[in-house]
């Protein structure tokens, strides 16, 4: 039986891209390139675990952009791509993987159907690469002049992820040789490398122009859905209100089966609304004892995971809290940072507003807190 692990190689410095950080940590529509490369593999049912490979100086960057994802702990890469893959294989060896997919962190637009094709081909093959036929006329040049035309018959442009039987790829790397891709090393063993259809959207971000193109492709290949959420919880005397993922010290507390974080509950329902699978009470029934006192971050993270499993990318969250007390303003940025950390969004894509009801209704009388939320999520067209 196949037990497939995936490796996402992101230890490079991206010197051709420029900037003060490696390109894989640049943002693409609210998420880092590295995070987007990881998410599709993490959401795929056919993959047991995903191992990131990061640069020696990138632990903090990775933790900030991807630390909340359920990947394996990252390993530090080597001086070359091949060296980084060898370190990943060593880390996977004790986990019992039979097959492995090697993907570049600089390919953020990976889609599940391509992963499906690679996994299916591994049933009968020991090495598989996705590829696209070369359609442009190819010329060989010398000193800025054309030196000849290259016959493009049979030529393909190879992408990642590339799939291999674990033992085959380990043998290919055993000599410590270098190659621009892992299939090149496997070819040297004489092992047949099978080809499946690649994905034109699965581009590699190398230059700044590639990032601009990826942004346009992501926009053209998606449709937005908007979900809304609303929740209310009563107040009673206590030692602090849990709201927006943080505890606000005050002489009150919210009443509920979980921690009663009305803000995260509204956001959870807003995200669930974009995938149409019910509400927070459906997934986390208050009749179940295991959710008593639960941290509502668990609920919001599960909603995020459900969205990712459907191929959705959260574009923006908007939250309005309705209460007379406690005051929200002094805690707004802490809430924003916490919600961003749970959902993987940049903080500027998490909007938090607060208002009173001019002492009208239950919120105006200080009997409870209400929250309403909206989530904008992009899904594959």
Account of the protein in words:
With 381 residues, the chain is an alpha/beta fold. The chain has 2 domains: 4-220, Spore Coat Polysaccharide Biosynthesis Protein SpsA, Chain A (Alpha-Beta Complex), CATH 3.90.550; 223-380, 2-C-methyl-D-erythritol 2,4-cyclodiphosphate synthase (60s Ribosomal Protein L30, Chain: A). 30% of the residues lie in helices and 28% in strands. It contains 12 helices and 19 strands. The chain has helices at residues 33-42, 59-66, 81-92, 112-121, 166-173, 182-188, 208-220, 262-275, 280-283, 297-309, 332-343, 361-364, and strands at residues 4-10, 27-28, 31-32, 49-54, 75-76, 99-104, 127-133, 138-142, 145-150, 156-158, 162-165, 194-197, 222-237, 241-243, 246-248, 252-254, 313-322, 350-355, 368-380. Helix 5 (166-173) packs across helix 6 (182-188) and helix 8 (262-275) packs parallel to helix 10 (297-309). It starts with a strand and ends with a strand.
Describe what is shown at a glance.
The protein is of the alpha/beta class and 381 residues long. It has twelve helices and 19 strands.
């Amino acid at each position: 039986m196949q037990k497939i692990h995936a490796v996402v190689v992101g230890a490079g410095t991206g010197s051709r891209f420029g900037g003060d950080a490696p390109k894989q940590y640049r943002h693409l529509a609210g998420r880092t390139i590295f995070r987007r490369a990881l998410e599709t593999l993490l959401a795929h049912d056919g993959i047991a675990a995903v191992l990131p490979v990061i640069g020696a100086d990138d632990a903090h960057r990775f933790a900030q952009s991807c630390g909340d994802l359920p990947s394996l702990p990252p390993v530090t890469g080597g001086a070359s791509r091949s060296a980084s893959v060898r370190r990943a294989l060593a880390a996977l060896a004790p986990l019992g993987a039979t097959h492995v997919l090697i993907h570049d962190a600089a390919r953020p637009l990976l889609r599940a159907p391509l992963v499906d094709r690679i996994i299916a081909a591994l049933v009968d093959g020991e090495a598989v690469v996705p590829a696209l036929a070369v359609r442009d006329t190819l010329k060989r040049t010398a000193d800025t002049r054309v030196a000849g035309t290259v016959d493009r018959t049979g030529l393909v442009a190879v992408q990642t992820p590339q799939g291999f039987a674990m033992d085959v790829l380990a043998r290919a790397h055993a000599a410590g040789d270098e190659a621009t891709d892992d299939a090149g090393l496997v070819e040297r063993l004489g092992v047949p490398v099978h080809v499946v259809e690649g994905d034109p959207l699965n581009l590699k971000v190398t230059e700044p122009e590639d990032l601009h193109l990826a942004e346009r492709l992501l926009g053209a290949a998606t449709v937005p859905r908007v979900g809304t959420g609303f929740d209310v919880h009563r107040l009673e005397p206590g030692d602090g209100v849990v709201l927006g993922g943080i505890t606000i010290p005050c002489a009150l507390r919210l009443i509920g089966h979980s921690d009663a974080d009305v803000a995260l509950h509204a956001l959870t329902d807003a995200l669930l609304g974009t995938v149409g699978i019910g509400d927070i009470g459906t997934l986390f029934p208050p009749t179940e004892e295991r959710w008593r006192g639960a941290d509502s971050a668990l609920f919001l993270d599960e909603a995020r995971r459900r969205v990712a499993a459907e191929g959705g990318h959260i574009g923006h969250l908007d939250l309005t809290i309705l209460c007379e007390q406690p005051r929200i303003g002094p805690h707004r940025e802490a809430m924003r940072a916490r919600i961003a950390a749970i959902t993987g969004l940049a903080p500027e894509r998490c909007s938090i507003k607060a208002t009173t009801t001019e002492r009208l209704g239950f919120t105006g009388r200080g009997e409870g807190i209400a929250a309403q939320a909206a989530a904008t999520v992009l899904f594959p067209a």
